[in-house]
Design goal:
Structural class: alpha/beta
Number of strands: 15
Shape: globular
Number of helices: 17
Helix content: 40-55%
Strand order of the largest sheet: 9-8-7-10-11-14-13-12
Largest sheet: 8 strands, mixed
Mean pLDDT: 95
Distance between the termini: 55 Å
Low-confidence stretches: 8-13
Oligomer: single chain
Length: 432
Amino acid sequence: MAIAELKRGDVKAVAKGDVKDIGLADAGKRKIEWAAQQMPVLELIRKRFAKEQPLKGLRVSACLHVTSETANLAITLRDGGAQVVLCASNPLSTQDEVAASLNRDFGIPTYAIKGEDNATYYSHLSAALEHKPQLTMDDGADLVTMLLTKRTDLVPNVIAGTEETTTGVIRLRAMAKDGTLKYPIIAVNDAQTKHFFDNRYGTGQSTLDGVIRATNLLLAGLKVVIAGYGWCGRGVAMRAKGLGSDVIVTEIDPTKGIEAVMDGFRVMPMAEAVKEGDVFITVTGNKSVIRAEHFEAMKSGAVVCNSGHFNVEIDLPALDKLSSGKREVRPLVDEYLLKGNRKIYLIGEGRLVNLACAEGHPAAVMDMSFANQALSAEYLVNNHKDLKPQVYVVPEHLDREIARLKLESMGHKLDKVTPEQERYLASWQEGT
């Protein structure tokens, strides 16, 4: 697939941004092109956008994981006429070579460096807001939060926004409830073609990919404890079971708990699970899911990681306080020495393990998620005047069209309802 890039002679060829090394751009461009081959739905949208220019002149500030898949979304928005600035939504999720290529090859100012400290992270958010966005794209709601708390002078410019994650949607709904949210935002995360597939199949595969790359553990035969049985938890549990793990689920929701039981997993409180578990994965979107009393009860050698958006699901200050020493034993694997010479291993600093230690979701599943982002942006441009400062779901007709296009791209076809069936479904007279 041909992705439009800027000509080398163009003065905009190296966009203003902040990346680790612009010399990595060649490798980044290859990664972007590789991902593009697995994103046929987004490519169809990009081609239409390039022709119709539905986002012409729109200033977009996007705070997303800077990966090869995200690059293809940014290019799609740019080709649709938008002026895009991108920053990282997590300090450890950036692919430095992709960030370099976006700046050099595609003229998209990108502010992202893998491993950046907190000060740099927030300076990059600030740089993205200096673009004076009319539309925000967020992954965790950090950009929106900074806009609404520290850059209120920019709020009048903003017509709408989108949000990619479960955690971000929770934050935005809390903002809307207390009147803090000042413009409409579409919860892309809640689209069926996002959470059914991205959260379940994407998170399921990429989380275990991150665990295995970081540790080289054989998961078969290990007891894997998964905190949370939402769409992400379901996916991780499914894949861990497929690799031969004995899966234990912890939950606070009785409906999700019984679902996990009926899916073949044991369900118990974390206080009990820590006595058995070999590997712990949090995917709840909540805070301190694994905390001091849990660390104290874990067996030596336990491996702990998080695949929720923020690094608060594991109580890291408590782990630091309990430990008498800490060392890095493998890249992004820290060994904590606790009382009794027990050792606990933390992966990826407690941040998103699938992006900190692997490459995030496969491009084929992000195809649908980012198709939702692109079409939601177009929808908001056309309909923002009719929307209130609330959180909205992706319109059903867009969701279904994305599913149809994805199915078609995979070589599958659907049945069609006959005229007789349409009449039957629309009537009530016919019975037994």
